[in-house]
Amino acid sequence: MKAISWACMVLFLVVLWKVKMAGAELSAAQCKEERRIGINVCKPVVIYGKLPSPQCCERVRVTHTECVCPIITPKLAVLIDVNRAIRLIEGCGRRVSRHFKCEM
Q1: Is the pTM of this model over 0.85?
Q2: Which of 35, 50, 60, 96 is in Cβ range 3.0-4.6 Å of 44 for a Cys bridge?
Q3: Is pLDDT above 70 for 6?
Q4: Cα separation of 97 and 44, whole Å?
């Protein structure tokens, strides 16, 4: 159950964070911090099925895909309910591109 919750959280974050930073690269430390904050703030959404808080939605809007996509493995990807993740992301006012996939 814990692995499924973690997988759902990661997918939720990946789909939410389809933002590219124009002209600048993020360091590994910056990416790690973005992931840590996003996971902590959005955990109730994924684990308990609660609605996203304003803080979670803010994280959805500002986190970068290049920080989240590299940690998605095929094993992790199969544990994720993609449709639920997309509904949650769009509930935060973020558009999800049709057929979005992490480019690794």
Answers
A1: no
A2: 50
A3: no
A4: 25
**How far, rounded to the nearest angstrom, does the alpha carbon of residue 99 sit from its chain's CA centroid?**
16
Given CA atoms 30, 95, 15, 85 in this order, what sign does their dihedral have?
positive
d(CA 62, CA 3): 25
C-beta of residue 91 within 8 angstroms of C-beta of residue 52: yes
Signed CA dihedral, 31, 89, 76, 66: sign only: negative
Encode pLDDT of 26-59 as tens digits.
899 999 999 999 989 988 887 788 888 999 999 9
Contacting residues for 42 by C-beta, under 8 A, at least 6 apart:
9, 12, 13, 16, 52, 56, 59, 60
